[in-house]
Design a protein that fits this description.
Elements: E1 6-7, E2 21-24, H1 27-36, H2 60-75, E3 84-93, E4 102-115, E5 118-128, E6 134-145, E7 147-148, E8 175-181, H3 185-193, H4 203-208, H5 218-233, E9 239-246, E10 254-264, E11 267-274, E12 282-290
Parallel strand pairs: 1-7
Antiparallel strand pairs: 2-4, 3-6, 3-9, 4-5, 5-6, 8-10, 9-12, 10-11, 11-12
Amino acid sequence: MSIEPLVLTSPVVTGIHPPPATVRADREWLMAYAAALSEHDPARYDTTREGGVDAHPLFPVCLEWPSWLQALESALPPDALPRGVHATHELRYHRPIRQDESLRIETRIVACRQRRSGLHLTTVLRSSDEAGNTVFESRAGLLLRGISGEEAGTEDDSNANLLPARSFADEVPQWIETREAPVGFAHVYTACARIWNPIHTDLAVARRAGLDDIILHGTATLALAVSAICTRESRARPARRITARFLSPVTMPTSLRIERLAGNGGDIRFRVRNGSLADAPPACIGTISFADP
């Protein structure tokens, strides 16, 4: 479906800094997120494990979502936010998440840049423990489809130079793994991740936003790729940095073809295709690196 152009009559307010939120990484949430992704690693569910259940490397997106949404709602008019789709993401770990710890999340919108397909907003999120030490940091990019408006912030703030380049989207994979996204997967992921956005579960809302159908969360596509790479290559090392650029929406049911590409320094590069065939369109490209042994 096409989407009607929308011009914002007032600029997006960058620098929005909602009050910090406190969230708890409880073990039920950690296990539910792993289960939504059909994780097979016993450490994701072992409540007898020293240190508790091992968090999936992308679990921070679950903790960050309420704060990110609050910042966006504070900065955008009501008719703009439903057009938003996750466009880019960067996650940096200072240390792994611990079961049942409480984290303080600070959020700030730092850039608003015009792209061909819409307005791109970059939000910075920082999560710290009770001692004030940073646990992880993220830069999340939201694309407001079909919207134009005044720019704010710098290109560096928009994180464009830190994300995977589209130029490696045609590389030959070193290995391939297929994961399924069946009917209802977006609903299961929504409930288990506690990431509530109706374009992923409500067809009427998705169509009002100019989509033909509900679409899978970008973080779900990314999490499946991260799971596949961790199973094959992490060697029990915790993730240090994950980046992603989302290239096309994923509708269900579908097969996701996860392709491990050549590395670049300490980064493992990957591509996820929206379909099981080698010529299926790329849905996501990204990188992951692990801590030193």
